[in-house]
């Protein structure tokens, strides 16, 4: 994948068609900026961010935007603290208990719903109304809503596709798989000596984010339309078995896989020790930084399905922004939140993630630098059918974020590949734990 560079003309063209307000001309840009740029804000503004991905590659641009915001608001002092998932949950919960939360937060929709249901977030319905018409459809997860009000605004999304090395598949005489059976067959043919056909990380939330969408694609659900936990079903069991079998039965994954962090899997893919992996654009960002020439020989397809005709599903990742109800500087928090959608910076930020973060603004997602790149186009296509734990039928719940934080969705995969439980027992135990959370 080539590194994106935009001429002034091209960049102005992007600005003319993108933006959370659907702005069409530079005059409109100026008018919208004036509409959002209220009186200068003052005082400290604390933003607790989850932008720790890809070894912090995104952090400089976010710090730059915070500094630019303070320059426009001389009385403001904006600080950004970066935290990984589980650390961010623990620190936020502790701060909420102490009555000293930050001003602005960034979390996935499930966690945001948990905070909203507990009364910890500021009502952002008016802000959502400013953005609503120009955001891409995100299943039922475009907003964090609770009891008819909006508390979180989508900022960016991500999803996973099946990446592969074109030359390795050509050498083995196989094509990119489109079904589960082809996926297994291709992985087996690509496994030889020190080269393995497919691998995934058993770290953190990733295993759950791999197998749950496969189960949904297969006709299963974690939660049905009525909000009932229904995860102990044949389609979900089949998906869990399918994922675990790559390691336990087909032996197309390295023996040390249960110990691999996600960065380990990325490095093995770059070294061509692994021929295929399911991941988001972070792996492309890593390749661009370490071996950019390799991007020309990397391909991508949407996640294979069990049966032809099934809808390809992948995990709908990404983040929402929200303001805490007990923020000591709500005007500053709201102003800074809005600044993170500023047209020029938002476009530059998303473009510079090399597909690791995908835009939630419709016009940006349809811009040429996404449509003309095969890898990015595949990810944007996959995003249209990606799902969170509620699947396509049910929105976020206050408890799915807690379940994810406790790794309840990942444990079945880890327990099965480590030989601690059978597929049936691991799925039954997860279902029981989810039902307990749902009742609380």
Describe the protein.
The protein has 2 domains: 8-158 and 317-383, Periplasmic binding protein-like II (D-Maltodextrin-Binding Protein, domain 2), CATH 3.40.190.10; 161-315 and 410-439, Periplasmic binding protein-like II (D-Maltodextrin-Binding Protein, domain 2, 3-Layer(aba) Sandwich). The protein has 21 helices and 11 strands. The chain has helices at residues 8-17, 26-36, 53-56, 59-72, 85-98, 109-117, 125-131, 166-172, 180-189, 206-217, 234-248, 262-270, 282-290, 330-339, 343-351, 362-365, 368-371, 374-383, 400-405, 411-417, 423-439, and strands spanning 43-49, 76-82, 104-107, 144-146, 149-158, 161-165, 196-199, 274-279, 298-301, 317-323, 358-359. A hairpin with a 2-residue loop joins β4 (144-146) and β5 (149-158).
